[in-house]
């Protein structure tokens, strides 16, 4: 993270899988977002996102947050994330990744997310728009 030019903060590995699959589908990069100067950092939960934001702010490393609102845009956790953005941005999902891509329920395992996003038909326009926003 400290050697990154720009960082994308996400809650979990399933978000990383979705971003990688969609970025490749859109031909934004051939293998990894580092080709564009972006490093994806997994925070492991929404509660941990502010800690990473504070650290990135302290070192003046630009970042974008993939922010899942979990259908509660004004929750204390969501307000905290918004308050720490400074000059950075958040790309907000009304609920979560699974709802955004039309998947019923949660991805119970990382393997399930990998299998789901192997099928390019599961990468819809909404997710493509989200990923484009992350890299602009």
Spell out the blueprint of helices and strands:
Blueprint: E1 6-10, H1 13-25, E2 38-42, H2 49-58, E3 63-68, H3 76-83, E4 89-93, H4 97-100, H5 110-118, H6 125-134
Parallel strand pairs: 1-2, 1-3, 3-4
Helix pairs in contact: 1-5, 1-6
Structure, explained:
With 136 residues, the chain is an alpha/beta fold. It has a single domain, classed as Rossmann fold. It is 40% helix and 15% strand. The protein is built from 6 helices and 4 strands. It has a 4-stranded parallel sheet, with helices on both faces. Helix 1 links the parallel strand 1 and strand 2. The longest helix has 13 residues. The model has no long low-confidence stretch (mean pLDDT 95).
Short description:
α3 (76-83) links the parallel β3 and β4. With 136 residues, this protein is of the alpha/beta class. The chain has six helices and four strands.
Q: What's the number of domains?
A: 1
The outline comes out as globular
Oligomeric category: single chain
Low-pLDDT segments, ≥5 res: none
What strand line-up does the widest sheet have? 2-1-3-4
Structural class: alpha/beta
Text of the CATH class: Alpha Beta
CATH architectural designation: 3-Layer(aba) Sandwich
Sketch the topology as an H/E string, one letter per element: EHEHEHEHHH
* Overall pLDDT level: 95
First-last Cα distance: 19 Å
Q: Which bin fits the share of residues in helices?
A: 25-40%
Radius of gyration: 14 Å
Strand content: 15-25%
Number of strands: 4
Number of discrete helical segments: 6
Here the CATH topology equals Rossmann fold
Main beta sheet: strand number and arrangement? 4 strands, parallel
